[in-house]
Design goal:
149 residues, alpha+beta, two-stranded antiparallel ribbon, 27% strand
Length: 149
C-alpha cells in the first residue's frame, strides 16, 4: 500500500487530529477544518497543555483512512473536513514516530479519541500565507562578524 515506505503497514498506529485553520482570501480569512497526522512529540506537547488549533485527536490504524488507493474520512471527523497537503507523506512520517516511541501510543488507545485540549485560535494557522521577504527586513551585522581576528 505504501511502496515508498516498506516499513509501514496498514495496521500501524497513528494519531490524526482535526485542526481549525484558515485560508486567506479577498474577503478576509475563511475557517476550514483540516485532518492532519500528529507526530508523537507534537501529541505529547499538546497533552501538556500548550495552546493548539486541534479540537480532536483520534488514534487509528492506517487502514481506517487509507482504503483502495483513496482517503476515507473517519466517522469522528466532520464530513466537510479536508485532508492536509501531502497527507500520505505526513502520515507515514508520523506513523514512524509512534513506531520508534511505542510508549506514546498509550496517550490515546487505538480506536480512542481525546478532545480535552487547550484549544485556541489566538494565533491563527493560515494555510496559504505567503511570506514576502523585503530588503528592509535584513538585519545589519557588526562589521567584524565575518572577519578572523
Amino acid at each position: 500500500m505504501f511502496p515508498n515506505a516498506v516499513d509501514i503497514h496498514t495496521e500501524d498506529y497513528c494519531v490524526f487530529g482535526l485542526a481549525t485553520c484558515f485560508l486567506k482570501g479577498e474577503d478576509g480569512l475563511e475557517q476550514v477544518e483540516v485532518i492532519e497526522p500528529i507526530p508523537s512529540a507534537a501529541l505529547e506537547a499538546i497533552l501538556k497543555g500548550i495552546p493548539t488549533s486541534y479540537q480532536l485527536a483520534c488514534a487509528k490504524s492506517l487502514s481506517a483512512i487509507f482504503r483502495d488507493d483513496s482517503l476515507v474520512i473517519p466517522p469522528e471527523f466532520p464530513e466537510n473536513a479536508q485532508f492536509c497537503e501531502e497527507f500520505t507523506d505526513r502520515a507515514i512520517a508520523a506513523t514512524r514516530t509512534y513506531k520508534s516511541s511505542p510508549g506514546a501510543q498509550t496517550h490515546i488507545p487505538l480506536g480512542g479519541s481525546r478532545q480535552n485540549f487547550n484549544f485556541s485560535l489566538e494565533k491563527k494557522r493560515v494555510l496559504n500565507a505567503v511570506n514576502v521577504v523585503r530588503t528592509e527586513d535584513n538585519v545589519k551585522q557588526h562589521p567584524h562578524t565575518h572577519k578572523s581576528l
